[in-house]
Amino acid sequence: MLTKKQQLTKRIFDLSLTLLIIPFVIIPVLLFLLIATVVTGKNGLFSQIRIGQFGKYFRLYKIRSLKKENHEDIFAIRKNETVFGSWLRRSKLDELPQLWNVLVGDMSWVGPRPDVPGYADMLKGNDRELLLLKPGITGPATLKYKNEDKLLLKQPNPTEYNDTVIWPDKVRLNIAYAEDWSIIKDVVYIVKSVFGN
Q1: What is residue 119's three-state secondary structure?
Q2: How many domains does the chain have?
Q3: Spatial separation of the C-alpha atoms in residues 134 and 99, rounded to whole Å
Q4: Cα dihedral angle (12, 14, 16, 17), rounded to 10 degrees?
Q5: pTM value?
Q6: Which of 65, 94, 122, 192 stands the most exposed, by the fewest C-beta atoms within 10 Å?
Q7: In this predicted structure, what is the pLDDT of residue 70?
Q8: Sign of the C-alpha dihedral computed for residues 50, 106, 108 and 100 taken in this order
Q9: pLDDT tens figures, 90-113
Q10: Cβ atoms of residues 138 and 110 within 8 Å
Q11: Residue 147 belongs to what domain range?
Q12: DSSP code at position 163
């Protein structure tokens, strides 16, 4: 896992990049929030409790993409997704408000995606090392499963497939990331996320 010096380096990088980018995205974020409010009929800013570093709860922010709040059921997501919301989710622009989460220290640019209660907080044994990491906007598992929704829709039992195949693989990928961390690799993951693989 990351040493204290590595954690400090990672935090300085996160803050520097976030402060550099925020001035360029604040206007688009406000515009997206307004559109999301109009098309969903609800507050365009969606928030949800997620599991963070050390298993602590924190509030994650996104731009609302669904007319009804069910971000866990893959079939409900497709049914309740607006056209604008679908575009936001495909482009990952719905996650821009998470720059605030990075700014205040709840998240990092790169790390495991923050899960709802019932996953990361239930890890056992050595897998609990994952909780030493701050959740990230992107990361190795996020890139590998960038089309996770489509993959799950092909399964006869999406929840079982997620719990027995995808989730264990994500844990493995993220622990491997932490054990071989470098700032250069973080930059590579961010670049791949923005410009594609």
Answers
A1: coil
A2: 1
A3: 14
A4: 160
A5: 0.90
A6: 122
A7: 55
A8: positive
A9: 888 999 999 999 999 999 999 999
A10: yes
A11: 4-195
A12: I
